[in-house]
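Check this.
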Amino acid sequence: MHSAKLLAAILLGLLTLSSALAAEAKPDAAIKTKAAKASVTLNASVKADPALAANCLAEGRKWMNEQAAEAAKDYKEDKALFRDGPYTYGRDYSVRSIVADRYVSVLRSDYMDTHAAHPNRTVDTILWDKAAAKRISIRPFFNETADNGPTMIAIRKAIIASLKGEKKARDAGDTDEEWSKGIEPKLLGIGAVTLAPSTVAGKSSGLTFHYPPYAVGAYAEGDYVAFVPWETLKPFLTSEGQAVFGGSRPKGDAEDN
């Protein structure tokens, strides 16, 4: 009798978990045509902020419609390209960190399968100011962020050092630094940035820069994340930046991103 009740409880738990996962995975917007199958998904943490969710969904819908239009154009020109089915696109938004209950770092991940040699992925980031209900950059945290200025040069140097360490750990085999040429000492050319979480509540331990396949290495190497600790940033921080950064990077954060 007890065994039957236990089995029933386990089955109920599995069904509940399955339903929760299915609900989480359900797209928030989707398109399906002969040429394109596209979707946009916001994770629960993004949806917890209605203004952020609306902003991301509007952007995602625009992107999704643009991809569907491009696919429709290809379909009209050459239906043979779609012998294996429609092109597939997916965009996911997920929260990486929330700092000072104000600054929300969002990862935006895109997946594209247009029947080329292999599918492709890209990654970008959003820094959201909850107080102002708008997207911002990291500029307010620094005294200056001029192209090729001291702040950007110092950050780039730290990024390269971090990526070298990661490449060595992966035994990627890059002996020259050709891969680093795409990382420019410019706010809009240095990489997609997020605020890293910290061991100190309400603080960020530094900046993480996210690079998709091909950005800083061969496709087979996959994604890379470079970490720049806040101590490196300290000489360049404004009072606002000094209030945001502190503590250490939590154990395991490198493995999660």
In short: The first helix runs from residue 2 to 25. Strands lie at 29-32, 36-42, 87-99, 103-113, 120-129, 134-136, 192-196, 206-211, 224-229. The CA atoms of residues 25 and 41 lie 7 Å apart. Confidence is low (pLDDT under 50) at residues 1-12, 14-23.
